[in-house]
Amino acid sequence: MLDVQAPDAPLTLCPNSNASSECAHCKVRALSVCSALEAEELAALDKLARHVSFEKHQTIFAQGEASHSVFNITSGSVRLFKLLPDGRRQIVGFALPGDFLGLSLSERNAFSVETLSIASACQFPRAAFSELADAKPHLLRRLYDMAGHELSLAQDQMVILGRRTAEEKVAAFLLGLRKRWARIDGSTVRAPLPMSRQDIGDFLGLTVETVSRMMTKLARDKIIVIVPDGVRLLDLARLEALAET
Amino acid sequence: MLDVQAPDAPLTLCPNSNASSECAHCKVRALSVCSALEAEELAALDKLARHVSFEKHQTIFAQGEASHSVFNITSGSVRLFKLLPDGRRQIVGFALPGDFLGLSLSERNAFSVETLSIASACQFPRAAFSELADAKPHLLRRLYDMAGHELSLAQDQMVILGRRTAEEKVAAFLLGLRKRWARIDGSTVRAPLPMSRQDIGDFLGLTVETVSRMMTKLARDKIIVIVPDGVRLLDLARLEALAET
DNA sequence: TCATCACATTGATGAAGATCAATAGAGCTG
DNA sequence: CAGCTCTATTGATCTTCATCAATGTGATGA
Questions:
Q1: Is residue B211 domain-shared with residue B140, that is, in the same domain?
Q2: Structural domain boundaries, residue B223
Q3: Of A94, A152, B219, B228, whose CB neighbour count within 10 A is largest?
Q4: Domain annotation covers residue B5
Q5: Residue B4: inside a domain, yes or no?
Q6: Is A159 within 8 Å of B104 when comparing Cβ atoms?
Q7: Per the structure, how many domains does chain A have?
Q8: Do residue B89 and residue A163 have CB atoms under 8 angstroms apart?
Q9: pLDDT tens, B69-113?
Q10: Helical H runs in chain A?
Q11: Which of A100, A130, A153 is the last residue before a domain boundary?
Q12: What is the distance between the alpha carbons of residues A155 and B96, in angstroms, rounded to a whole number?
C-alpha cells in the first residue's frame, strides 16, 4: 500500500485527526461522502483521515502525476482543470465545501486541482481508501451514487459548452453555482464568486472579455447585481428563462 | 419494486433469456458490466436479464420519462442526447456493443437514447438491478469503476467542446471512436461511423456543414480517407498531433 | 432505368465571439 | 497616500464557424 503523501506544503497538518472529534464536529459531513454512513464505517474512514490546509492558489495535485490521495473539501473552494500543451485551459469543475475529489480512482490524476482561496480538506491515502470502499458496501454505494451525480452534472455541462450562447452560458453558470451555495449556506439570491472571470471563461468555453460583457449585460438588464466577490440574482425567472434546460 | 417495463415495441423478446446460455455465450461480456463477476453473481444478473432487439432509429428511452430499466448494449450502436426546449440538441455520448446505459440510476432519464442501427441489448429492471448491486459488492465495484471511467471521458469531452477548434474536434472524435472500436473488433485504422454528420456535429458542438468541411479537409490533407460508412485513418501521427491532450 | 428521398458536400455571406488594445478599479506595499 | 500590480471592463477590429442556398450522391423502390 502507498504511503500517505502530503500535497506540497500544507499550512497545517493534524496528525491526531483520527480522534473521533474531527469527523463528529465536521461542518460539511451532511453534504459529503461521509453522510449516510454507519457509525462503524465513519470510524474506519476517520482513521484514514488527515486534515490539511492550503493557501490561496496552492496546487493540491497536478494533472499527470501519480495519484496518492483523495480529498474531501471542508472549507474554501478549488478549481479542477485540464491543460492542453499549448496552454489552453478547460476548467472541468469547481469543488466547494463538502465536495469530494477522487471519484475516478485512477493511477494518475486526470486533471489538476488548485485552491481559489485558503481552503482545508480531509485527505485519505488513495489505496487505503479504495480498500475501505471494498470492505464497506455503504461507502461504495455512496461513492457510486456520487459518481452518477457527477456524471449527470458533466453531461449538463456538455450541453452548456456545446449548444448554448455566451449569455446563456453565464446565466446557467450563475444559477448552477447559486444552487450549490444554497446547499451549503442556505443563501438564496447571493452567489459568491471565489473564481476570477478568467476561471469562469475557462469553465464555459469563453474569453474573459466575453464573460465580462455578459455579466455587464445581465446587470444592465437588471437580472443580476454585481457586488464585491460575487453577484446577487435579482430576477431568477428571467435568469432561468435564459438557462432553461 | 417496479415491474419490468419493455421499451416501446422491441422487435423480439426472449422470456427465456435467463437460461444461462445467454450470458455464457455473450460476445460482449468481456467488455461489459458483467466482466469480472463471479459465477454466482453472473447467474444472479442473468436471472434479471431480458434480451431485446431494436430497429434502426428506434427510441429506447426518452429524456424526462420515469426510468424503469437499465441496458447493456450487445450489438449495434445508439446515441445518447439531451434536447433544449427550442430544439437544439447535444449528444452526450454514443454507446457501442458492451456499453452500459444506466450508470446514474436516477428516477427520471436525464437523456434520450435512440438506436443508430438495428441493435440489441440486455434489459434489467432498474430497481432490481439497484438491489442486486447492493447485494453483490463485486458488481457495485464494477459499476463504480465504470462510472469513474465515464466521468473521465465526459471531462475529456468538456475540453473538446470548450477549448478546441473545429478541425481538432473532428480529429479527436475520430481517434476516440477508433480507440473504442479497437476494443470491440480489434480494428486499428478503420473507424466505422454509424452516426450521421448531424450526429457528429451535435456531439462536437458544430454544424453539419462544418463537420463535412473538416472531414473533407482531413481527407484532402491525406490524414484520413472517407469510405462508405466510415473513415480510414491514414496518418495517426498527424491526427494525434491535431487532437493532442 | 429512372424517380424520389435523405444525407453529404460545397459555396457565399453573416454574426457571435475572439483578439487586440486601452482604460479603470481594487488591493498591496513601501 | 503614491505607486505598483493584478483583474475587470470597455471599445475596435478580425476570424471562425454558423447560416443560407445550391448541388451532388447513394439507396430504395416503382
A1: no
A2: 164-243
A3: A94
A4: no
A5: no
A6: no
A7: 2
A8: yes
A9: 999 999 999 999 999 999 999 999 999 999 999 998 789 999 999
A10: 21-25, 39-48, 126-135, 137-163, 166-185, 197-204, 208-220, 236-243
A11: A153
A12: 18
Partners of A154 on chain B (C-beta within 8 Å) are: 151, 154-155, 158
Q: Which residues contact A194 (CB under 8 A, 6 or more apart)?
A: A76, A77, A116, A117, A229
B93 and B182 part of one domain:
no
CB of A88 within 8 Å of any CB in chain B? yes
For residue A88, list chain B residues with Cβ-Cβ distance below 8 A: 163-164
Q: What is the CATH number of the domain that holds A195?
A: 1.10.10.10
Please report residues of A whose CB lies closer than 8 A to that of B90.
158-159, 162-163
Enumerate residues 6+ apart whose C-beta is below 8 A from B77: B94, B95, B96, B97, B115, B116, B117, B119, B194, B195
Residue B98: give its domain's CATH number. Answer: 2.60.120.10
If asked whether residues B139 and B57 sit together in one domain, one would say yes
Q: Which residue of B has its CA nearest to A155?
A: B92
Q: Does the C-beta of B212 come within 7 A of strand C?
A: yes
**pLDDT tens digits, B136-172:** 999 999 999 999 999 999 999 999 999 999 999 999 9
Is residue A6 a part of any domain in this protein?
Answer: no
A166: contact with B, CB 8 A cutoff: no
Candidate from B105, B137, B155 with C-beta closest to A82: B155
Residues B147 and B180 reside in one and the same domain: no
Indicate whether B50 and B73 sit together in one domain. Answer: yes
Residue among A141, A150, A158 minimizing CB distance to B140 = A141
Lowest mean pLDDT among A49-58, A136-145, B5-14, B103-112: B5-14
Cell numbers linked to B30: 468481456
- Exposed / middle / buried, residue B99 (Cβ in 10 Å: 0-12, 13-18, 19+): buried
Cβ–Cβ gap B158/A155 under 8 Å:
no
**DSSP category for residue A6:** P
Which of chain B's residues have a Cβ under 8 Å away from the Cβ of A67? none
Residue B239 lies in a domain: yes
Residues A231, A116 share a domain = no
Give the predicted TM-score (pTM) of the model. 0.91
Task: Quote the pLDDT of residue B112.
Answer: 97
> Which A residues 157-216 have CB within 7 Å of strand D?
196-198, 208-209, 211-213, 215-216
pLDDT for residue B20:
44
Q: Tell whether B178 and B208 lie within a shared domain.
A: yes
How far: A241 CA to D11 C1' (Å)? Answer: 29
Q: Which three cell numbers stand for residue A129?
A: 481508501
A64 to chain B: closest CA residue: B245
Place of cell 416501446: B8
Grade residue A14 by pLDDT with cuts at 50, 70 and 90.
very low
Q: Is the CB of B59 under 7 A from strand D?
A: no
In the prediction, which pLDDT does A186 show? Answer: 83
Q: Does any CB of chain A come closer than 8 Å to the CB of residue B112?
A: no
| Domain end residue (candidates: B155, B189, B220) | B155
A125/A198 same-domain check: no
Task: Give B13's pLDDT tier (boundaries 50, 70, 90).
Answer: very low
Residue B59: strand, helix, or coil: strand
